[in-house]
Amino acid sequence: MTVRLAIVTDIHHGAPTTTKRGDAALALLDDFARYVADARPDHVLELGDRISDLDAVTDRRLASEVADALRPVREATTGQMLHLCGNHDRDHLSVAENEELLGQSLGHATLDVVDWRLVLWRADTRIRRGPTHRGFVLVEEDLVWLARTVQAADRPLLVLSHVPVSGHAQTGNYYFEQNPRSATYPGAERIRAALALARVPVVCLAGHVHWNTITTVDGITHLTQQSLTESFTTQGEPAGAFGLLELGRTVRWTVEGADPISFGFTPMAHRWTPRLPVFSDHPGLAERPRERA
After folding, report:
1. How far, in Å, CA of 156 to CA of 144, rounded?
2. What residue numbers bound the domain in which 257 lies?
3. Number of domains in the chain
4. Is 57 in a helix, a strand, or coil?
5. 120 lies in a domain?
6. pLDDT above 60: residue 288
7. Residue 150 and residue 155: Cα distance in Å, rounded?
């Protein structure tokens, strides 16, 4: 039996900023509600960055407006609408304030849907801007929870996060080609090592980087979905990205809008051969001494 999940991410409601068309967000959420009503998914996933942050008062108003706009989406689905926090949701608002506005706990959670398990890895997404550290922080408790959840899995996993963890190249990305450290967590290789502990198929889905990507690492397929309001790939018009992920023995991911993609694959439980170290550090590959004449 196939599980069908509708996906929206990086709504960025607010004033337009650089390539983000936040002024179109609420109208596009009306379109998303109609899309969900037609598609009739089992659940809806909203992967964070609901607003473009400004200050605490403005952010609370913007987040409340998004919560209101998402009510018709929640009413249109036969299952649950599940949320994550993005970095913009956390600049001036706490997790508790986001929970209050959305009427939902935003701690780590799992949800079994038919033969799959959804892993809502709601890791810390607040960006630090202090003198000693700028960027994301990989909180140890978040990593340990993920590792234990993955190790205990008895069915295929869909791991959901706001920030991608594949480490995929940001070449051509408007925001992150010159700022790759802001595209993922420091120490993301530890996250990938935790995912590799799974003895079941694993698929990862994230937002944050504002483009559709497909990356396979260690036999695990990582997807990132385009922002609802991003325009750097769509000549100034908002992408209007709505996704549908269908999970069964095979997986089908389709993104509608001005930046569409469709991709199908069979998730695998096997992992790849461990990588070589630096050639010069490997005794079996070190250059042989030149033979004397």
Report:
1. 19
2. 3-281
3. 1
4. helix
5. yes
6. no
7. 10
78-95 confidence digits (pLDDT tens): 899 999 999 999 999 999
Q: Is residue 172 part of a domain?
A: yes
CB atoms near residue 223 (< 10 Å): 25
CB–CB of 230/30 below 8 Å?
no
What are the backbone angles phi and psi of residue 50, rounded to the nearest 5°?
-70, -25
Separation CA 287–CA 189 (nearest Å) = 29
Q: Is the dihedral of CA 215, 217, 219, 222 positive or negative?
A: negative
Q: Which residues contact 27 (CB under 8 A, 6 or more apart)?
A: none
CATH number at residue 92: 3.60.21.10
What number of residues does the chain have?
Answer: 293
In a domain, 292, yes or no: no
| Model confidence pLDDT, tens digit, residues 156-179 | 999 999 999 999 999 999 999 999
Token couple for 139: 């909180």
Q: In Å, what is the CA distance from 113 to each residue of 30, 46, 108, 237, 268?
A: 27, 17, 17, 36, 19
pLDDT of 247: 98
| Within-domain flag for 99 | yes
